[in-house]
Amino acid sequence: MRNIFLAATVAVALGWARPAAADLVSFDPDGLGPLVAVQGETFDWQPGNTLLIEDPNDPTNATILFQANLNTVTAPDGIGGTTIVFAQGTNGNFITLVAALDVTLTGPGTFTIDPNTGVFKIYHDTDGGNNLTGLGFAADAGSTEILSGFAISGGGGLTLAPPCTSPGVPAGCIDPVALDQFAGIAPTNDYLTTNTLTSTAGSSDVVAQVQTVNAAWFSNLVAGSSLTITSTKGFLPFFQVEPSAQFSINGVVDGGTGGAGTINLCGPGQLNTILSPCINGTGFYIQAESDASTVMTIAATAVPEPATLSLLGLGLLGAAARRRRQMNASR
Question: pLDDT tens across 313-331, in order?
Fold first, then answer.
């Protein structure tokens, strides 16, 4: 029943998020010219990090934070295909994306976006974001804000496998494992005292609207243009990227709140128990690996139009509060 409800909720979210056909967007990775006509649907982001922070005084309210580096941007090749015109770090140019969104936890494994709240920002930077420290994604020395917007509507959800240490050995149970299993940078596990529950499903779509644009980077995008960041997969534990130690709390302050390795990831009674030392997904915070790509659509009129911002990491987090309460109640 839980998975049926989750699938139905995600299907509705995807229905909200159907974007118009992407346009050719004039983009310049350094803001100095010349601009290149790129396909609006071909901004691909590297795997990144998402953090859900539940309000300890209100189990229905939460904030979702997201951050990622750009991977590549492609343009038409003139013969029906595409070619890469920018890769992260080329000529010392880096593009990052951050979001801070207000959500309401609505049921088992689900959340909805609070209308007309939150913020997403895209920055040009001289060194990009560091996934392990969580720094360099938002405003810092050398960064320039090139695009911003806010959330309109949307929703999503997450299914977490129950630990086999729960009473009754629930079907489909998976015992907690190491949160950090990314092998790209030594040491493999940077959080030796932090384990995690395992995600089995997750997806989301968040409708957003472009509010400000720096024309040196996007000359033909305007307020009301749409930005659609579509997620197709997500993970717990982390396999493709380092878990971040910090997140921007508002899309502006760089590393304003704690991520992996903080006590906020652990629920009551977790320390010094059979589930110790710390289980991501049982505290007021839950952190997940996320991945996304972007569709940009130029506004057809001066009237602002809804846009879509789909963050896989958001969908990976909706079940956190419900799962924690069920686990704590079973102890």
Answer: 555 455 555 555 555 555 5
Domain boundaries, the chain: 2-330
Nearest alpha carbon to residue 176 among 277, 248, 262: 277
**What type of residue is 328?**
N
**What type of residue sits at position 94?**
F
Does residue 286 contact residue 206 with C-beta atoms inside 8 Å? Answer: no
Structure tokens belonging to residue 322: 């419900």
Give, in order, the Cα–Cα distances in Å from 298 to each of 24, 82, 144, 205, 228. 8, 20, 22, 19, 11
Q: What is the number of residues in the chain?
A: 331
Interstrand relation of 110-113 and 43-54 (parallel, antiparallel or unpaired): unpaired
Expressed in angstroms, the distance from the first to the final Cα of the chain is 23
Decide if 93 contacts 31 (C-beta within 8 A): no
Ranges 5-14, 64-73, 225-234, 259-268: which has the least confidence: 5-14
Tokens, residue 298: 């130029």
pLDDT digits (tens, 9 = 90+) for 137-180: 999 888 999 999 998 878 887 788 988 877 787 888 998 999 99
Do 52 and 63 touch, CB atoms closer than 8 A? yes
C-alpha torsion 123→154→159→257, nearest 10: 40
Alpha-carbon span 195 to 197, nearest angstrom: 7
- pLDDT, position 233: 62
DSSP 3-state percent helix, strand, coil across the chain (nearest 5): 10, 45, 45
Residue 324 has a pLDDT of: 55
Single pTM value for the model: 0.86
Among 257, 235, 240, smallest CA distance to 248 is for 257
CA atoms within 13 A on the CB side of 17: 30
pLDDT at 1: 21
Closest CA to 109 of 163, 177, 36, 52: 52
Please list the alpha-helical segments (H only) found in the chain. 2-16, 312-315, 320-330
